[in-house]
Amino acid sequence: MKTKILILIVVVIYSTSLFSQATKKFIDTGSVKNQFDYLITKSYKYKDYKSVKTNWLYKLKANVSDSISALKNEITIANSSINSQNQTIDSLKLAVNSSKETVNNLNTKIQSISLLGLQINKGTFKSIVFSFIAILIILLLFFITKFKQSNSITVQTKQALKELDEEFEAHRKIALEREQKVRRQLQDELNKQKKD
């Protein structure tokens, strides 16, 4: 009878300790770095090793995968924006070249120019054309600036993705090394027990 009660007490204590450990949840919000930090701080320490729950690793893997997908989507959007801006810049360059050709042709004509049936002084006409060119150049500079900003964001995003890939690879290697060490220790223990 005492043995049954003792076994019952041991089973209850063991199951409550397992239940209390199972109630800990992995955070899945915040940056990937914060999630890694949380995983490291909340994992169980055994000697010099950290024991991490498998479901936490799967959740972290899913979160990292989602982050990578989001970054890839941002890169795709940035690339399409860059292509659109390149097309706009090309069309503006064509418009500027066309305007310059118009100005050169008008300079060769006589002092007065007929525009929509009205005779306009050459100086007035020049100021109108140069104003138009100035507006186009300002627009061109604006789009070039936007292009450079988008390109800078793309480069930064690619760099961040590369760093994230490197961090993930380093983490994967460390996890693999830990797993190999644990397997070696288990095999050593099994070998010792076989010898005994």
Explain this structure.
- This protein has helices spanning 2-22, 32-42, 54-107, 122-195; strands at residues 44-46, 49-51, 112-115, 118-121.
- It has 196 residues and is mainly alpha-helical.
- α2 (32-42) runs antiparallel to α3 (54-107).
- 1% of the residues are buried.
Topology at a glance:
Layout: H1 2-22, H2 32-42, E1 44-46, E2 49-51, H3 54-107, E3 112-115, E4 118-121, H4 122-195
Antiparallel strand pairs: 1-2, 3-4
Q: Helix amount, in percent?
A: over 70%
Strands of the widest sheet, in order across it, are: 1-2
Radius of gyration: 35 Å
Oligomer state of the chains in this structure: single chain
Point out poorly predicted stretches: 17-23
Shape: rod-shaped
Major beta-sheet overview: 2 strands, antiparallel
Class by helix and strand content? mainly alpha
User: What's the number of helices?
Assistant: 4
What's the mean pLDDT score?
A: 80
The fraction of residues assigned to DSSP E strands is: 5-15%
**Helix/strand order, N-terminal first:** HHEEHEEH
Based on DSSP secondary structure assignment, what is the total number of beta strands? 4
Distance between the termini: 34 Å
